[in-house]
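Worked Example 4.2. Read the sequence first, then its structure tokens.
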Amino acid sequence: MKRIIKFKLNGEDIEELVQDNITMVDFLRQQMHMTGTKRGCEEGECGACTILLDGAAVDSCLMLAVEAAGREVVTIEGVMKDGVLHPLQREFMDKWALQCGFCTPGMIMSALSLLHENPHPMEHEIRDAIAGNLCRCTGYTKIVEAIDSAAKILERQANA
């Protein structure tokens, strides 16, 4: 069965006809052509499909698209503003916190959720926030450094 859902996606109001049983990750990739959200384990274990739902990091492989009705969804495509990378995106590049890049969108989305809740996280809080995101290429040290550095940049921007 299909139904029309209305929700905010990356700041834009959308109205789409969706299958009742399509997951959010498949809806985003197939119907919205937003391939930044990765399809990994499909069991909520790897974090590659992490999006923000009303500001909270969620595994979009465990969520049905119809659950987005009336809510706000942000994907990695919605993080960059006016052609300018978000400090998290820039720091992931500058600190060499990515290698193959498969986990990077999910890592950034989890980190965004953390920094919205806690703009001054300690290292263990950063590690806790990304614990649901699996990276097969790095040792996580550079990822933690990038998130910490972005937090400091965001703090300076807020105080400027």
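Now turn to a second chain, presented in exactly the same format:
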Amino acid sequence: MSGYFSSPFPRRKSVGVDVGGVMVGGSAPVVVQSMTNTDTADIDQTVAQVAALHRAGSELVRITVDRDESAAAVPAIRERLDRLNVNVPLVGDFHYIGHKLLADHPACAEALAKYRINPGNVGFKDKKDRQFAEIVEMAIRYNKPVRIGVNWGSLDQELLTRLMDENNENGSPLTAQQVTREAIVQSALLSAHAAEEIGLGRDKIILSAKVSQVQDLIAVYTELAGRSDHALHLGLTEAGMGTKGIVASSAAMGILLQQGIGDTIRISLTPEPNGDRTREVQVSQELLQTMGFRQFIPIVAACPGCGRTTSTVFQELAQNIQEDIRRNMPVWRERYPGVEELKVAVMGCIVNGPGESKHADIGISLPGTGETPTAPVYIDGQKAATLRGPDIARDFERMVADYIERRYGRGRVAAE
């Protein structure tokens, strides 16, 4: 696991779980996952979105399995993805009738790499324990791990009511918010214990406890991490759209990750209408990368711009290179091992431009307002060229491509 710095907190020790060949917990790096928003019964759309999420970097993809038609589609989705060489594990998201769907569709139960169940809506009253047990027994039969995912939007009301009553009997020493947090933690732990009593191994259980407020998430997961060694999935549920969802998720999960808590994450962004679902994958990667825990994609450093940089050339160049990198990364990962470590600098004037460019593997300092229309290029800390004329941006893009080929291409192996 590469990065710029190490957390001052030791990584929490958790039991490793094999999810279709992807390790979650133990000594494995934090895993990025996402979820489709297609109708799973629509095989074509679901396959296309799973493939897009995987290309963007999602290492696990969850799909909704809510009715017979979606359960019946899962084996075909798995088969189609395999033919496309999209080997990402699929996680089935079950609510209310998961026990029945798994029993009625054994091919679905086999095709999925993991089952996700919510103890708050796996069943009600006397059916709850029985239907929970049936899902766990199916997981044991097919040798699948289970994520027990508590969500405060569908929290076990019997458990919450009991804890509230006990709190009142004790003179209400805790607030309602504190009792709710405790109910979330207990729901996860009691459900995990019940699954183990049925026979599911600890190395087959992942826990999550999702809430929608930053401070609640930090408090719940801190408590859960202190009372369990199960692998933990982090996620702020109902995080919201755009910058609100990004900031809230990053603030909450960043604090937990810095404390060594969390084995797999999802940034649950509400997409814009017809928006790009892969955005949540990019944000997850950027969170882990900027914190120095993993490296997914070359870094493009660019200055924010000021009165010295009234030209938009450096902004357009930085954007073009960033987009080019993201577009090419699925191929580059195979063709150029180690390319994710590359650092590129695109700077807008002479104030910090040369210095930042020298710190990068390859960088350019473009002319600011009133500066001589020349652009020095630095490679591995040394000035390598000076670009001039109307094609500076295009010339630099070519130099970046040449640098990647020379440093990370297969030709370097022969040369060495």
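Notes for the reader: The mean pLDDT is 91. Residues 361 and 380 are 5 Å apart (CA to CA).
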